[in-house]
Amino acid sequence: MAQRRTGDLQGQRVKVLKRADFHSQNLANAQQEARRLFAAKTELQGAWLTWVASQIYALRPPEYASMVRRELQSLQEKSDL
At the top level of its lineage, which domain of life is listed (predicted)? Predict the structure, then answer.
């Protein structure tokens, strides 16, 4: 049983490393995509929220879509200051 736990923990470590690698490899692209989406806000005005939601929904893989969503949220918070 202890060995199984160790194996599970090692599997979690590998998953965390892969996640960190994915994040570092895709952060610049996610930031660029978030800036592109945010830039359309002025032009689209009231239609922007529906449009941006559809754009984020179409992004793959889901982990990348989440990164873009977080970066977009950060841009929105900065613009509200």
Answer: Bacteria
